[in-house]
Amino acid sequence: MPQSLPDPVLILDFGSQLTQNIARRIRELEIYSEILPHTVSIGDIRAKKPRALILSGGPSSVFEKGAPAVDPEIFNLGVPVLGICYGMQLMAHVLGGKVVSAEVREYGVTPITIEADASSLWKVFSPASAVLMSHGDTILKLPSGFRKTGHTRSTPIAAMEDVKKRLYGVQFHPEVTQTLQGVPFLKNFLLEIANISPNWTLTGYIDRQIAEISRTVGKDHLICALSGGIDSTVTALLCHLALGDRFQAVFVDNGLMRSGEARQIIVDLTHLKLPLLHVNAEKTFLDRLKGIRDPERKRKVIGKTFIDVFWEEALHLPVRPRYLAQGTLYPDVIESVSHKGPSSVIKSHHNVGGLPKKNPFLLVEPLKDLFKDEVRRLGKELGLPETFIRKQPFPGPGLAIRIIGSVTPERLRIVQEADRIVREELDHSPYAATLWQYFAVLLPIQSVGVMGDQRTYENVIAIRTVSSQDGMTADVGEIPYPALAHLSHRIIAEVRGVNRVVYDISAKPPSTIEWE
Known about the structure:
Elements (H helix, E strand, L loop, with lengths): L8 E5 L5 H10 L4 E5 L4 H6 L4 E4 L25 E4 L1 H9 L3 E17 L14 E13 L5 E5 L7 E4 L4 E4 L11 H12 L11 H13 L4 E5 L3 H14 L3 E7 L7 H11 L4 E5 L1 H8 L5 H21 L7 E3 L4 H5 L15 H4 L8 E3 L7 H10 L4 H4 L19 H18 L10 E15 L2 E14 L7 E2 L4 H14 L3 E6 L13
Parallel strand pairs: 1-2, 1-3, 3-4, 4-9, 10-11, 10-13, 11-12, 13-14, 16-18
Antiparallel strand pairs: 5-6, 5-7, 7-8, 8-9, 15-16, 16-17
Helix pairs in contact: 5-6, 6-12, 8-9, 14-15
């Protein structure tokens, strides 16, 4: 990122899968934020001149051996500090309080009561406000100088503060939508306690990235991994603007797309006047996926195959490209390799998980510090149509991770046909505007049925619909029963090889949006 950016709010990452959500909420308030590993030195923190510090949550217990720690000097920097979940427990632990394993672990949405003598930071909370709790430890004793500012039925100390030192802690997660007053709370902390004025917008980002791509690539050539989604398309447009005829977009048709999608992608990208090379590599992908059931291996194989195909195509270009552009986003990185903290690896993303150790390209990733909504805003500035900008997210490995177990041509046909019906029914329904994603999943089981007075033993399709703002957390999509019954009827009647349909009613967390 450019060095001229404003003094940041620094977020120290202790391994929470929601750390990126904290940064996103802050940017929504037009305040610049950066995420750093909890191991960052106090000198490096001082050098960045932070306006405030936020300590993220995390999966550890502060009293276990090897638990993520922090330099105690961060509490003496003279800037406000907010500890969230593990961050609050660590603050209490480091400053002389006592943290113990909770008798009752607290997970899910819970009412919180704010104490009558709490400071103005807490004024945004109404009586019995809903907050998201996710913790197995609790604070038994407050550090000297702190007072309790909130409690729940199961957690006596759910919030705390030392107003004189501007140190604050919350056991809940204000960064998620399930905490109803979470965003106003963060806004109050940053604007009222830290006295920060809005200082971050995407204005000028396009010009900065074009200049950065041009500087990085120099006189060399660049090839772009283009999938047809918003992320890779915005990446391609930026690279094309920066490099002109030294840029080449490559769309690899892996055969794992939704029904009719490859044709539509080619039409859309042609309209954008990008130099496009279409490669039909369906057979290569299916051959390499044959017999592979483990989802992580699928992702790795698909990622590596993408790179192999790109390199093969690059060899036949008039000038061999030295650089490869990818549409990697911030959430891709946090869920894949934990490069900015000790987060648990949930799954690999093809953008960041499939590159071989001896990768022949140097990477260009102009969007790797942005969130999906920020990329959509860039796409709008670049002239992309609204229908393209609002296209549903689609996983890089395609339908391979919506086929649970091994991928075969027959299983691919089944999930493509079922998914087509789901989209036909929901695309123009009254529910579409409230949904983040909707799709079909082929399960690795068969069940007994009766069709045409005969016994069948065929496949099961799961329908998945979710509502979300950013994909980091998601709720179950609310689809009326008659609509679900109609979907089930169409899939069973029209998709040969299916005799049962089920509906996924799990939220994220604890589930992920995709099944693999």
